[in-house]
Write a structure and sequence with these properties.
There is one protein chain. This protein has 400 residues and is an alpha+beta fold. Helices cover 35% and strands 27% of the residues. The chain contains twelve helices and 20 strands. The strands form four sheets. It has an eight-stranded mixed beta sheet with strand order 6-5-14-15-16-13-17-20, with helices on both faces. It has a six-stranded mixed beta sheet with strand order 8-2-1-12-19-18. It has a three-stranded antiparallel beta sheet with strand order 3-7-4. Helix 8 packs antiparallel against helix 9 and helix 10 crosses helix 11. The longest helix has 28 residues. The chain starts with 7 loop residues before the first strand and ends with a helix. The structure holds flavin-adenine dinucleotide. The site of flavin-adenine dinucleotide has 35 residues, from helix 1, strand 9, strand 17 and helix 8.
């Protein structure tokens, strides 16, 4: 077998793999980032950057670029679809806690593009496209990765360590036989993008609005070019039925009456999982991002949590590279698994409970609680510290 190369391999060039590569490149560690696709994926997925993620991305100089290409959201709100605003959260209360006291609405592929530009200028990092990881093994010295190329040929890549950021269906996690514990939630999520200016038709609408309703919740998210509408959908319908243009039209008209037909630029229907890997580490292999945890999108925390994993992991791996014991990586797992379970899952599950509640008394109790929270400056700020992921990042420092 070929000898171990003095490098780290990262599998998967989504936002987490790209951030991990940028961190290792900055630390002067030779890194090969392999990506199964021909180019960086440009599908419509995450669109929200939370304040601490913007703070983190500042170290690569990409935050200002994202702000230029994105939309600052100084507020977000809970609403009732019929009655209007329940509670508006003011992110300016976080001034002093973060350099970016707002959420940034910006498509995740723009982050990928900005990071790719940085990596292409970094001699330490190479990106290999159309290289699909199919199997992995390791021994005391390093890791051997089996890769399939687009022409069907195979090769073995060797490295001292491997970071798996190959997404929710991670091949590496499966080969390592690491259980991905949690659940698939029953409803399908339908996301539709439209140029309809909801802000001119729904009173006091914030850039991000979670709208509760006893029969069907809705989320309205504005991106720099379009509004996205997210609706829960009957899992018994086929994808064709869910995306039937007439049905989508009726559902959008029910969210907000539009005298003309809605133009629907994109529609995606997807199953949502809430799962956390039982282990993030196996010897010299580390899981991060969606490969390690997935959650429902209510709260916009998946990509943000993954970027925070990538930074935590690579800071420790850089120490190991310089001679620290591999054992220090255990703290990565303890810190970031706790964040996934106790911050991300807890907050997104709570958001889903609020959105799904149909009992009138329980709905009223949730709404009263949210109103009381925003009316009390200390409680308002505490809620924002949690939902913006600042608190969980700080708490991690206390975990040994
Ligand atoms: C519709 C939708 C909306 C979302 N909204 C938000 C939001 O507002 N905020 C938020 O924080 N999160 C959101 N998320 C979640 C967010 O998109 C993910 O958490 C994020 O993409 C995870 O990044 P990642 O790098 O871990 O994985 P991915 O983005 O999935 O990237 C994995 C990469 O690995 C590559 N790959 C996979 N297998 C292999 C292999 N075997 N070999 C080589 N390469 C491989 C893939 O091609 C891909 O490029 C949303 C997700 C969806 C689906």
């Amino acid at each position: 077998m070929s000898k171990i190369e003095d490098r780290v391999i990262i599998v998967g060039a989504g936002p987490c793999g790209l951030v991990a590569a940028a961190c290792l490149g900055k630390a002067g560690i030779r890194t090969t980032l392999i990506e199964a696709s021909r180019e960086l994926p440009k599908d419509l997925r995450a669109s929200t950057f939370h304040p601490p993620t913007l703070d983190i991305l500042d170290r690569f100089g990409v935050t200002d670029r994202l702000i230029e290409r994105g939309l600052i959201a100084p507020q977000w709100q809970f609403r009732d679809r019929r009655e209007g605003v329940v509670a508006t959260f003011e992110l300016s209360l976080l001034a002093g806690e973060t350099a970016h006291p707002y959420r940034l609405q910006c498509e995740q592929w723009k982050l990928s593009e900005e990071l790719r530009t940085i990596l292409e200028a970094d001699d330490c990092v190479e990106i290999v496209y159309e290289a699909e990881a199919v199997d992995v093994a390791q021994d005391d010295d390093g890791v051997s990765l089996q890769v399939r190329r687009a022409d069907g040929s195979g090769e073995t890549m060797r490295a001292r360590y491997l970071i798996a950021t190959d997404g929710a269906r991670s091949v590496i996690r499966k080969v390592l036989d690491i259980p991905f514990e949690g659940q698939t939630i029953p409803e399908i999520f339908l996301s539709m993008s439209t140029s309809f200016p909801f802000e001119n038709h729904i009173e006091n609408l914030a850039t991000i609005a979670y709208m509760t309703d006893p029969s069907e919740w809705a989320v309205l998210l504005r991106t720099p070019t379009l509004w996205r509408v997210l609706l829960p959908t009957d899992p018994n319908l086929s994808e064709d039925e869910i995306k039937d243009p007439a049905l989508m039209q009726r559902r959008l008209q029910a969210v907000c009456a539009n005298p003309n037909d809605y133009d629907i630029a994109h529609a995606t229907a997807y199953k949502v999982n809430e799962r956390v890997a039982q282990r993030y580490i196996s010897g010299r292999i580390f899981l991060a991002g969606d490969a390690a945890h997935v959650n429902n999108p209510l709260g916009g925390m998946g990509m943000n949590g993954g970027i925070q994993d990538a930074v935590n992991l690579t800071e420790k791996l850089a120490e190991v590279w310089k001679g620290a014991s591999l054992d220090i990586m255990g703290r990565y797992e303890r810190q970031r698994r706790k964040a996934a379970l106790e911050a991300v899952q807890a907050q997104t599950l709570r958001n889903r409970r609020i959105m799904n509640e149909v009992d009138p008394a329980a709905r009223k109790a949730y709404h009263d609680e949210l109103r009381a929270t925003v009316a009390d400056p200390a409680a308002h700020k505490a809620y924002l510290m949690r939902s913006s992921m600042i608190e969980s990042l700080r708490e991690l420092e206390t975990i040994e």
